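Okay, can you check this protein?
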Amino acid sequence: MLRLPPFEYLIPKNLDDAVKLLGERGKDAMLVAGGTDLFPNMKRRQFEPKYLVGINALRELRGVRRENSNIVIGTGTTLTQLSNDPAIQHSHSALSTAASLVSSPQLRNAGTIGGNLCLDTRCNYYDQTYFWRKAIGFCMKKDGDVCLVAPGGSRCWAISSTDGAPVAVALDARVRLVGPNGAREIPASALYRDDGMNYLTKARDEILTEIVLPPADGLKSTYLKLRRRGSIDFPLLGVAAALRVAPNGVVEHARLVLGAIASHPVEAIDAEKILIGQKLAPDVIDAAAEAAYKPAKPMDNADASYAWRKKMVRVYVQRALSELAN
């Protein structure tokens, strides 16, 4: 049986108190809300914090509300609450869908959208027990100095396996962070960097507090997830698509973002350029899918063959765009 390492659980009174506790404990502290990913990682000794700052009870981080014409989502909102929210289902359906596809009903009841956006990157060589990792000499991401996916390289290739991140980027969402130096707001795309170890631009002592969705204004969106089983599993590929189509059928705005193929959500920029100014005819969809396929370079660090996972990029982009066309 895998057991949690010893730690002290700290309960902040409010958001400011949480920031203070996190700053005072420094690198020995981590945040926890639902804990659906953190606690298993701690059992495998991927994380060994001495302190956990529990923010699950902070009401100021929960709920969905209107702010002028924007929709603001507290990062403590559970995935179940988010997937069932009528406003999100109506105007930003890709986010509702993505939330509904994370793991299982029980874990969605506990897991939060903030935790999903900040999900640790994953890899076959990293997401194993301590004893398994020790037997192979560990990896660069924890306790070792070589990336076992690409031993000749100098970086970690663990992949971003969050369902929420590609959607947040595709919807042009912004995120709000609060830290010792105050609050700031950045595009969701700026929250991530292409680095399997240091995958977030968020500072260690900052807390992700809110997600801001701009007005849909006719935007159609969808999210498709490829995984071995229909539940529980992390994505082998995620495709988030968001289009705004004029009354004459011409695409005015297009965002197409791929998840689980790199250490960060990857925007298929060339595919977007093909779509804009065109009608969603089968040949246009095929061309966009081909453009998204070419730069997709999954590595041998997740379930299934990476060559097959690359082929599925073309298939799933076609499916996502065809769904929006219909």
About this structure: The chain has a mean pLDDT of 97. The chain has twelve helices and twelve strands. Residues 62-118+159-325 form a domain with the Uridine Diphospho-n-acetylenolpyruvylglucosamine Reductase; domain 3 fold (CATH 3.30.465.10).
